[in-house]
Amino acid sequence: MAQQKSGEPRNLRTSVKGPLMFSAFWAVVAFVATLIFASGGTAKTPRFDLAFIAAGIAFIVILVVLAMLSMGHKPNAEHLGKGSGVNLSSRTAGHGGHPSRPRPETGAPDAGPDTPGDRG
Questions:
Q1: Which helix (H) or strand (E) holds 97?
Q2: CA 102 to CA 79: how far, in whole Å?
Q3: How far apart are CA 7 and CA 27, in angstroms?
Q4: Which of 64, 81, 63 is nearest to 20 (CA)?
Q5: CA atoms 30, 33, 36, 41: torsion sign
Q6: What are phi and psi of 31, to 5 degrees?
């Protein structure tokens, strides 16, 4: 549980103001868009019933998604940010997918294993 002292403002993760405002913003956008597009433009009677339904659905769905994302949030352990001490440079041979032995020069005979068709 988060340690909350009385009288201190909550941090962004535990505050409910941010997700509510975000959901309300997208509910207003859904309301306006549905009001315009469901009625067929501004020349016809606006469909407030569909606009309120769309705003309510948008508000609830976005709020539930944000709640699930905030519940699933888990900060990394402190030791993970320190680094492992392993040199991950791809410039050295053997790291980053480069072969540990040098490649043969162009024009040199193939150094691979013999195939049955190469025997003479």
A1: none
A2: 37
A3: 31
A4: 63
A5: negative
A6: -60, -50
